[in-house]
Write a structure and sequence with these properties.
Layout: H1 3-14, H2 17-30, E1 34-38, E2 42-46, E3 51-58, E4 71-73, E5 76-78, H3 87-101, E6 106-111, H4 119-126, E7 137-142, E8 147-149, H5 157-165, E9 169-170, H6 177-185, E10 189-193, E11 196-197, E12 205-207, H7 208-222, H8 263-274, H9 284-298, H10 309-315
Parallel strand pairs: 3-6, 3-7, 7-10, 8-9
Antiparallel strand pairs: 1-2, 2-6, 4-5, 5-12, 8-10, 11-12
Helix pairs in contact: 1-3, 3-7
């Protein structure tokens, strides 16, 4: 990665959340965008000549406090265990800025509050903005290098063909801002990888070459995307939703990861931990979101590295202030 790009990425990773969304609003105005700006929730940017899709990422991070020190070891960024890196989803923020630099002019939505159930995007859709010129949503907020996921029961065929043509492979996930966008508009979405791993933990890392590859593939894919019609879907039911309910997620209801850790075993771990903590001062929705994050994160790591749910809460204490130990 070029030094100027690395400097920008480092700035994004280290910037306070409020300062970051103010910076992004100012940056978008300089690119000729008209913005709808609510610094507590979102910045939404359009131009009269915007391409007919919307790119989405979120500015908030688990832990709230950005890292003070970031280490680059052979093209992999981390905090060396000194805190959460916040590449989920500051890597997505960086990717969108680079796509603007390359010449794309989509509609853009940067949000806050994604990690706490989509608070920012919920406020955004409640303002009833005009989505007539948006044919599909792409969020850049997924671990790995080649995944695409969606949180409705299906993805529109042309959008699927386009994203698979760019080398992305379908996987499964739990929630991101596009869940709420599709529920509100019926416009199809995907969420794509941007090179981070072990999100929500002190082991989080960002592989720079993978992030750059995703940016290049998205640019080549999207530069001719205005030929695609509006991608509407009929059924937006998300089997693994932000409301905390789990059902047969396209065949994964008895999902076992490649290390052999079953969802059932993890749920037993959760139940055991809940018997040893007092969660009375946290809402059921917050608790459901936290359990969902724990299950999702746990199936991404080797079995011997899986935390108990109680330890997971301790590592994410800012999300769990309501728990009493």
């Amino acid at each position: 990665m070029k030094k100027k790009d690395l400097d920008l990425l480092t700035k994004i990773l280290k910037t306070d959340e409020v300062d970051l969304i103010v910076y992004l609003n100012d940056k978008l105005v300089k690119y000729g965008y008209q913005t709808k700006f609510d610094k507590d929730n979102y910045v939404f940017a359009t131009r009269p000549d915007s391409d007919k899709y919307c790119l989405v990422s979120h500015c908030d991070i688990v832990g709230k406090i950005p890292p003070k020190n970031i280490y680059n070891k052979e093209g992999v960024l981390s905090t060396n265990g000194e805190g959460i890196l916040g590449a989920d989803d500051r890597a997505g923020v960086f990717a969108i800025l680079k796509l603007l630099e390359k010449g794309l002019r989509p509609s853009i939505l940067f949000t806050r509050g994604e990690e706490t159930g989509g608070i920012g995007v919920s406020n955004f859709v409640n303002n009833h903005y005009d989505f007539d010129n948006i044919n599909f949503f792409i969020e850049i907020d997924r671990q790995g290098s080649n995944d695409f996921v969606y949180y409705s029961s299906t993805v529109a065929p042309e959008l699927r063909a386009m994203i698979e043509g760019a080398g992305f492979v379908e996987n499964f996930g739990s929630f991101s801002d596009v869940t709420i966008l599709t529920e509100s508009t019926m416009i199809s979405h995907v969420n794509v990888s941007c090179g981070y791993y072990h999100q929500h933990t002190f082991k989080e890392k960002l592989v720079l070459s993978e992030l750059e590859s995703v940016i290049d593939r998205l640019f080549n894919m999207l530069k001719s995307s205005n030929t695609i019609d509006k991608q509407l879907i009929i059924d937006v039911f998300a089997p693994y939703s932000h409301n905390g309910f789990y059902d047969d997620y396209r065949g994964y209801d008895s999902f076992v990861d490649n290390q052999g850790t079953s969802i059932s075993d993890l749920l037993i771990n959760v139940i055991y931990s809940l018997n040893h903590i007092d969660s009375s001062s946290i809402s059921n929705k917050q608790l459901a979101l936290l359990i969902g994050d724990y299950l999702y994160d746990s199936v991404q790591v080797e079995e011997e590295n899986i935390q108990t749910f109680e330890d997971y809460i301790n590592c994410n204490s800012d999300l769990c202030a309501g728990f009493i130990y």
